[in-house]
Input
Amino acid sequence: MASTIALDGSFCEGGGQILRIAIALSALLSKPISIQNVRHNRRPPGLRKQHEAGINLAAAISSAQTEGVHLASTSVTFNPRKIELPKILTADPGTAGSTTLLLQVSLPCLLFSSSPTSPSQLTLRGGTNAAQAPQIDYTQHVFLPFMKRHFGLDIALNIIRRGYFPKGGGAVFCSVPSVTEALPPVTLTERGPVQLIKGEARVGGLPFILAERMKNAARATLLAAGVSPTTIRINAVRETQEEAYGSGGGILLLAETGNGCVIGGTSVSTKDKAPEEVGIEAAEELLRNLRHDGCVDEYLQDQIIIFIALAKGRSTVKTGPLTDHTRTAIKIAEQMTGATFHLEENLSGFVIISCDGIGYTPP
Output
């Protein structure tokens, strides 16, 4: 039996990111782990419903034995067995907990099979457009296209119903194909010129004019920064009652470049934020990410770490300044997989992340 790897949940960002990447790698690599000081840097610390649901989902995928997986727990052990695919599973935290974060913990566990199988099927319930997590639109239009372009993984995602904070009630269906060989490395160091900035401002359960105001504020911010009006295409959308549960909204902006990079800027509506503020926030975030000349934005940065650690050979990716989430992901990936990362941090703000991946193939 493999010896248990001890991890400190207070490291760096000290939140749910450590849990997600450690549990995913534990399940995939069949390495038991013990995590102390879970979400130490959050108030309140310990597990919340969405983390509990995520760990239980990974446990269902890997037939794992667990301890400490309950609300407010600050200590978790996870002892996985061999993963047998495909899986058909549902996860529901019973709150507005993020569906995208449930996907983050489960996706790596479903990608590898020693023999060809049909895709696994996941139904994820909870919040689809919430603060403190990628919006489902970001996952659909930035993360999954990256996975397809660079790893050849054609993961299908269908938004059945949107769920907004604080009610949740959203539902997302994912079909995840598996591979029998190692993932290829990623080389992404030249972003290329921005060719198009497109986006969608959307509301559910609220007047359409609020989406229009978000859209107009985002557009005005981009124009003021010198973006050509012919480059900008932002739509405003109001969902029907069937398409959304509760009321809320948000905006996602995407800059598409000549070399196939997609850079995002995003913001979520809240009761205390004017629609103009939401639009401006997303536009300023996009402009900030473009300024650093990285090939991925600040949200994709940490999400790709686990995959380049598993890939075969050296990956090299140019990013903007490293986030705490990315530093955390690198630390845990090195500790769990044995992959080695090298960081070249440039004074002008960009970073070159290099990783010698382990070339993981399923046993």
